[in-house]
Amino acid sequence: xxxxxxxxALFAVDIVGSSGRGDVALEExxxxxxxxxxASFTRGxxxxxxxxxxxxxxxxxxxxxxxxxxxxxxHPLVHELTERLRAHNLxxxxxxxxxxxxxxxxxxxxxxxxxxxxxxxxxxxxxxxDAEPVRAALAQAPDATTALLVSEHFHETAVCQGRPGIDPxxxxxxxxxxxxxxxxxxxxxxxxxxxxxxxxxxxDRTASDADRTASAPDRxxxxxxxxxxNTKVISKASGHGVIYALGNGTMNxxxxxxxx
Length: 260
Prior knowledge:
4-stranded antiparallel sheet
């Protein structure tokens, strides 16, 4: 039986600053990332067990099952993953906090009988994941948890239509030059709270923003990764903190002082 060539959606993540944390911390953040990816793919309707996964050491490459809509790898997956990692970071010490570079592409790849995948689209995905624009976006926005770079092709097929949950205005075009790859891509930095953001930086919250947030209702949603009966609540208060709570009564408050 010959290897099959199939059109697949491709997703990759890399943990920022993973080196130098020590084996214990690295193993913990790898486990947290794996669980968050599993839960986020499942929430997006993509069967994690049917995905072809490749461990990158400090990240992961995921080849979605054939026929998976590209849009499902953006919404709700990207913002679901971002929110889960933000919740983790609120409770984590500095050595185990997680920030991610993410990349999305799609194309025709060779799928082996043993589950191995090869082809030019994987090379493009790797260049996007390592590209300067996505690195710079996180460096310029220290409060951002994730930054996403999607290929021109993926942008055309999954972003431009402006389907529910995907705002084309939240992506900006950037130039990418990495090794043998040169072309354009589209950058997206999920704003705090999961709302789309069009630029590579996170703007300071004004007093009016804080007032509006304080008056807005809390967002409450079931957490697929929590024990049965628990509910995750993430809410903001007066621009100075984030409250993360589980329905079993445990509450943790994280934030930073308004002083510069």
